[in-house]
Design a protein that fits this description.
Blueprint lengths: L5 H16 L3 H17 L6 H20 L3 H36 L19 H17 L8 H9 L1 H4 L7 H9 L6 H34 L6 H32 L17 H7 L2 H15 L6 H19 L3 H19 L12 H20 L3 H12 L9 H23 L2 H7 L2 H17 L14
Helix pairs in contact: 1-2, 2-6, 3-4, 3-5, 3-6, 4-5, 6-8, 9-10, 9-17, 9-19, 10-15, 10-16, 10-17, 12-13, 13-14, 14-15, 15-16
Length: 467
């Protein structure tokens, strides 16, 4: 079930009514777990077994880590838990990728091997809930959080349906205490949840899915389009992936609010970042902070001098790129961002660049660098990515985009820029409290009606569902 479908609306209305009708907190949490299981099983039912197995391993290993006094046994339990979760992720996500590369490596040597190809379907959300299980077991090992004794609480930590499929990635110390606090229905939280969900729906249905109508043909056959069409396609994809993913995050946060939960902010106007470092502080915040805390810092962070710091940055971004998908394009995307972060740290930038009047220039430069990186993220192959880059920086003739696509792309990109600008100059939290509630309700209603009227004819899954 996709958040922006009528099927989910029916599911959530029925679930929501029963959720708040239940009086006891324990009953309500059991109903929440049942709803999360039904939500996940609406895709491929048997994949629920993978989550339950993964969660079960961590649930028992964490308790063993907390109970044993032997440092050696603690490490063994930790390795067993992480190895189980990463093993499942690597099998489903990287098995065929590994075999195809072995075959490609041996072919030039005249060696032919019969490799096994498995018809694997990537379990929905496996990359996200794997990171959550790892953060939990590591935090228990380090003594940052206590091992959960309630199987219900731990199952809900992993399977809470608003964030189950595509995040935000939640930390145990932030989410688990919320499960133990009794919920009270609040019209204020309902209002905040409705606002967030409506904004997310608008981003997804109006901006992202309509930008996809020009992005898809350009990236499917880049060699056929002119340089101008390629540029618009690349810029449109930058807008599409932001509105698609941040739209999902907004809807997830909104749904959580209506149920009495708080999820962490995942996006903070990333395209107005003035450096690549600032971009990663604003984009997919739950992932970037996870990579920082569980990979970059354990590798040594910036404690070992310039060379080791740059090495740690590069390793972190390479693995972050590979986490997104089993493809060389994702690996190159991670390398590209690692290189940008290293250069940002190494280059002795002139002092005048720190002045406020240079910020628009730095923002435009950062956005251009990020947009170029999106070419590798979206391209169907490495060859296609190189063709797109060649046509971007070498003017070439080709098919133009239809006028309606030009108009759609330019209008929506201008709308996205305006939304960023307004939110920067006049924060939403500030003007939301100043506008009378009836007026604000009318605005939200108009946004919702606009989203429903202009909803694309074909439903598009969220981009990050594939990761």
């Amino acid at each position: 079930m996709l958040f922006h479908t009528f099927k989910f609306l029916i599911f959530f209305v029925l679930f929501f009514a029963v959720y708040w009708a239940l009086r006891r907190h324990t009953w309500r949490m059991r109903w929440l777990l049942l709803g999360s299981v039904v939500f996940y099983m609406s895709w491929i039912p048997w994949h629920i077994c993978l989550i339950l197995f993964s969660a079960g391993v961590d649930y028992f290993m964490a308790q063993r880590i907390e109970e044993t006094q032997s440092p050696r046994l603690k490490r063994c339990f930790l390795v067993l838990s992480i190895g189980t979760n990463l093993g499942l992720l690597m099998f489903f996500k990287y098995f065929n990728f590994f075999l195809s590369n072995v075959e490609a490596t041996l072919a030039p040597l005249g060696l032919s091997v019969a490799t096994l190809r498995l018809d694997l379907i990537l379990p929905l959300g496996i990359s996200f809930y794997t990171f959550e299980t790892i953060s939990y077991i590591v935090d228990v090992y380090l003594g940052k959080t206590r091992a959960v004794r309630s199987a219900l609480d731990y199952a809900l930590y992993i399977m809470f349906f608003p964030h189950l499929v595509a995040g935000p990635i939640v930390r145990p110390y932030d989410f688990l205490p919320q499960l133990r606090r009794p919920k009270r229905f609040s019209w204020q939280r309902m209002q905040v949840g409705a606002q967030l969900f409506t904004m997310g729906l608008f981003k997804k249905a109006i901006v992202a899915d309509h930008l996809a109508t020009l992005v898809d043909p350009v990236f499917a056959a880049p060699g056929q389009f002119s340089s101008a069409a390629i540029w618009l396609g690349v810029l449109a994809y930058a807008g599409q992936i932001y509105c698609d993913f941040s739209g999902y995050s907004d809807m997830a946060l909104g749904l959580a609010h209506t149920l009495g939960f708080h999820l962490p902010l995942n996006f903070n106007m990333p395209y107005f970042a003035a450096s690549i470092t600032e971009f990663w502080q604003r984009w997919h915040i739950s992932l970037s902070t996870w990579l920082r805390d569980y990979l970059y810092i354990p590798l040594g962070g910036n404690r070992g001098g310039t060379f080791l710091t740059c090495r740690n940055l590069m390793i972190t971004m390479l693995l972050g790129g590979l986490w997104h998908g089993a493809s060389w394009t994702f690996l190159i995307w991670g390398f590209y961002h690692g290189l940008l972060l290293v250069l940002h740290r190494l280059i002795p930038w002139p002092a005048w660049l720190a002045h406020s009047w240079t910020r628009p220039l730095r923002m435009a430069t950062t956005f251009l660098c990020v947009a170029i990186g999106w070419v590798f993220f979206r391209a169907i192959s490495l060859e296609a990515a190189l063709e797109i880059l060649r046509r971007m920086f070498q003017p070439m003739a080709g098919l133009p985009l239809e006028p309606v696509l030009w108009a759609t792309g330019c209008t929506l990109l201008a709308l996205l820029f305006s939304m960023h600008l307004v939110a920067t100059l006049w924060p939403v939290a500030r003007w939301r409290t100043r506008i009378p509630a009836p007026v604000f309700g009318v605005v939200l209603g108009l946004l919702l009606v606009t989203a429903l009227v202009l909803f694309p004819a074909t439903e598009k899954a969220f981009i990050y569902f594939q990761f």
